[in-house]
Specification:
Helix content is about 50%, strand content about 15%. By secondary structure, it is α/β, with parallel strands linked by helices.
C-alpha cells in the first residue's frame, strides 16, 4: 500500500530502524536508509530493500549530530526519490552514568542525536509533505519518554522532549493531511540494549543475567523483550489511511511497563 511513497528512516542500519525500512519496502515504498556501520553490510541491506520493494533504496551517511547534513539528506531524498512522504526519526544512542559522573560530551551527543535531529528532519521535510497534502512523521521515543530510570538523565530528558516536539508539530500540521506520532517501545532486543549491559553491570554491581532479568525485564510485566517487527508493524499501521485520525499521540509498545 506504499507504492509511490518515499520514506526516510534515520538510524536504519541496525535494530528497530532497519525493521521499519524493511516493513516500508515490503509494502513497495522507496526508502532512504541512514546510519553507521560496515560499508559492505549496509550495501547488502540497501540492495535487499530494493529487491523487496521493487522500488529504489538509497543510503545516506548523514550524521544526526549535524543539522546541515540532515538538510542535505532530505534534499537528496527529494531530488532522487521524491517526497519524503514518510519520515521516521529513529536514530538514537544511550549512555548510562550517574548525574555527577555523566560526561558532558555524552549529554550533548544524546540531545543532538535523540532529540535535535528530529527537529532538523521535520524542519526540512514538512514543506514537501504540505505540497502533497499527505505525510506521516513517526519518532521512536521510548518508555523513557513516559517514566524515568536512574543513570539515564540525557536519554530520559531527550525522549521526554521528543514527545513534546511530536505534540507541537502535530498541532501545527493537523490540517495538512500530515500526522505526527511517537512510538514508545519498552526493551527491544537490539544492539543498543546489548551495549548498555556492561555499563549497568558496572554501575549496579550485577552479573549479565541479573541485568537482563532483574533490571531490563524487571520493568516489563510480559517478561519478554519487544521485537523489532512488532514496533515496525505499528509504524506501518500509522502510515495507513485508517490511521489518519491518530496524531500527536505517544503509543507505547512496552509489554505493560508504563501501565504500572
Ligand atoms: P541500534 O543501536 O540498533 O540502532 C541505532 C541506529 O542509529 C544505528 O543505525 C546507528 O548507526 C544509528 N546512529 C547512531 N548514531 C548516529 C548518528 N550520529 N547519525 C546517524 N545515525 C546514527 O538501536 P535501536 O535499539 O534499534 O534504537 C533505535 C531507536 O529506538 C533509538 O532512538 C532508541 O532510543 C529507541 N529505543 C530502543 C529501545 C530498545 O530497547 N532497543 C527501546 C526504546 C526506544
Amino acid at each position: 500500500f506504499l507504492k509511490s511513497k518515499t520514506a526516510i528512516v534515520t538510524g536504519s542500519t541496525s535494530g528497530i530502524g532497519l525493521a521499519y525500512a524493511k516493513a516500508f519496502a515490503a509494502e513497495g515504498a522507496s526508502v532512504m536508509i541512514n546510519g553507521f556501520g560496515d560499508a559492505a553490510d549496509i550495501e547488502k541491506e540497501r540492495a535487499g530493500l530494493e529487491a523487496s520493494s521493487g522500488a529504489k533504496a538509497l543510503y545516506s551517511a548523514a550524521d544526526m549530530t549535524d543539522g546541515d547534513a540532515i538538510a542535505t539528506m532530505v534534499a537528496e531524498c527529494h531530488d532522487k526519490l521524491g517526497g519524503p512522504d514518510i519520515i521516521v526519526n529513529n536514530a538514537g544512542i544511550q549512555h548510562v552514568a550517574a548525574i555527577e559522573d555523566f560526561p558532558v560530551e555524552k549529554w550533548n551527543a544524546i540531545l543532538a542525536i535523540n532529540l535535535s535531529s528530529a527537529f532538523h528532519m521535520m524542519h526540512h521535510a514538512v514543506s514537501h509533505m504540505k505540497e502533497k497534502g499527505w505525510g506521516r512523521i513517526i519518532s521512536t521515543a521510548s518508555a523513557h519518554s513516559l517514566v524515568a530510570s536512574p543513570n539515564k538523565s540525557a536519554y530520559v530528558a531527550a525522549k521526554h522532549g521528543l514527545v513534546g516536539l511530536t505534540k507541537t508539530v502535530a498541532l501545527e500540521v493537523a490540517t495538512h493531511g500530515i500526522t505526527v506520532n511517537a512510538i514508545s517501545p519498552g526493551y527491544v532486543w537490539t544492539p543498543l540494549v546489548e551495549k548498555q549491559i556492561p555499563d549497568t553491570m558496572k554501575t549496579r554491581g550485577l552479573t549479565r543475567e541479573q541485568v537482563i532479568n532483574d533490571v531490563l525485564l524487571d520493568a516489563q510485566p510480559t517478561k519478554q523483550f519487544v521485537t523489532v517487527e512488532q514496533v515496525a508493524a505499528l509504524a506501518l499501521f500509522l502510515c495507513r489511511d485508517e490511521a489518519a485520525g491518530i496524531t500527536g499521540a505517544n503509543l507505547p509498545v512496552d509489554g505493560g511497563w508504563t501501565a504500572q
